[in-house]
């Protein structure tokens, strides 16, 4: 796939590295030239210094042939505008935007944009959502484990809040057949959905 990543902060850099290492053609856009240092010497993609919603910059990045665009700067408004330009002006079918402020989620929905909230899992979630129809991943850090819970007969009739109490976990996101979203506490997930949850790791 030909993928443009707008924003080369921690998430953008990790996302770009993972995509490039898997053989995708990756172009990274960031206003700050120095930010590209985070990509490391082994990065084999293209970097362009400029605004992610500047049409000339996007054309230089090859947006007219892009299969997907990920807007992952540290500013919600920049992500909204960049995603809108990619989707509405250039007709890119798959556009993912990172969101920091959950209050703005309704705005993203009204604009018809796919969004993913901020956690240490963001880069992997975005990468999986861009490339695969049914994401599968398991990651961990030093203090906690991020796990997958598939909703079965035992869990399909109870709310997210009750699942959290039952499994002693915190649900970060729900993966349905065609989207990833943050759940409400009272939501009752359907059988077959996958819950991305975080558990506190017991120190040995």
CATH architecture of the largest domain: 3-Layer(aba) Sandwich
- Spans of at least 5 consecutive residues with low confidence: 133-142
Instruction: Tell me the overall shape.
Output: elongated
Going across the major beta sheet, what is the strand order? 3-2-1-4-5-6
What class would the helix/strand composition place it in? alpha/beta
Mean of residue pLDDT values: 81
Percent strand equals 25-35%
CATH class of the largest domain: Alpha Beta
CATH topology of the largest domain, which one?
Answer: Rossmann fold
Structure description:
This protein is α/β, with parallel strands linked by helices. The chain contains six helices and eleven strands. A six-stranded parallel sheet has the order 3-2-1-4-5-6, sandwiched between helices. β4, α3 and β5 form a beta-alpha-beta unit. The protein is elongated and about 50 Å long. It starts with a strand and ends with a strand.
List keywords for this structure.
single chain, 204 residues, alpha/beta, Rossmann fold, Alpha-Beta Plaits, 2 domains, six-stranded parallel β-sheet, 11 strands, elongated
Give a quick summary of the entry.
This protein is of the alpha/beta class and about 200 residues long. The chain contains six helices and eleven strands.
